[in-house]
Design goal:
Elements: H1 14-20, H2 25-35, H3 50-56, H4 61-76, E1 85-86, H5 88-100, E2 107-115, E3 119-127, E4 134-139, E5 142-147, H6 151-154, E6 158-162, E7 168-172, E8 178-179, E9 186-187
Parallel strand pairs: 1-6, 2-5
Antiparallel strand pairs: 2-3, 4-5, 6-7, 8-9
Helix pairs in contact: 2-4
């Protein structure tokens, strides 16, 4: 299990938050956008502090304190480095999509591909059956298929599903060492 002791403060820029905590970039980006800060991928993220962004978007000091606490609670979440975690919400959404697409019983292929400004992007897909060199991890009744050659980079990752303006599957990976400003691509 891993956990960080460093904290996010209101005087940090969004860019510096992602640079300091790339392994949690996706969850942090989701929390920021849910609060109303959609500057996650814009140029303001390089110079605007969290405080000036919150107050500049018409939110209050109380909102700022709540956001900082939320971001730091994300940093405090423990990670199991020996598996892939598929949240209950993500498993339910995947099963529902399989049903809609006529792919009941398919597994979830979890992979990554070279892309983006930081090196890699995650890839999720339907997997009719595991390949011979796959590790199969079952979470909430869903088989996750992962190629053995990606295990070192992907073990410890959490796959979640988030509803809202930027709905979709979101992945948090403690092995990531760098992330782009929008939190979509990553490097090791």
């Amino acid at each position: 299990m891993t956990q960080t002791t460093e904290k996010i403060t209101k005087d940090m820029t969004i860019e510096s938050i992602f640079a300091k905590f790339p392994q949690k970039a996706q969850k942090l980006a989701t929390a920021l956008t849910k609060t109303g800060l959609h500057c996650v991928g814009c140029s303001a993220a390089t110079w605007e502090t969290l405080e000036s962004g919150v107050l500049g978007h018409g939110l209050t000091e109380e909102d700022l304190e709540k956001l900082v606490n939320t971001l730091n609670s994300i940093l405090e979440e423990e990670t199991n480095l020996e598996t892939i975690t598929l949240t209950q919400r993500a498993a339910e959404k995947f099963v529902a999509i399989c049903k809609e697409d006529g792919k009941v019983g398919y597994g979830l292929r979890f992979d990554e591909k070279p892309a983006g400004c930081s090196g890699f992007e995650y890839a999720l897909d339907f997997s009719p059956k595991a390949a011979d060199d796959d590790l199969i991890i079952t979470q909430h009744g869903v088989d996750i298929h992962i190629a053995n050659n990606t295990l070192e980079r992907l073990l410890g990752a959490e796959i979640d599903y988030v509803d809202g303006l930027q709905s979709g599957f979101k992945i948090t990976n403690p092995n990531v060492r760098s992330s782009c400003g929008c939190g979509n691509s990553h490097g090791y």
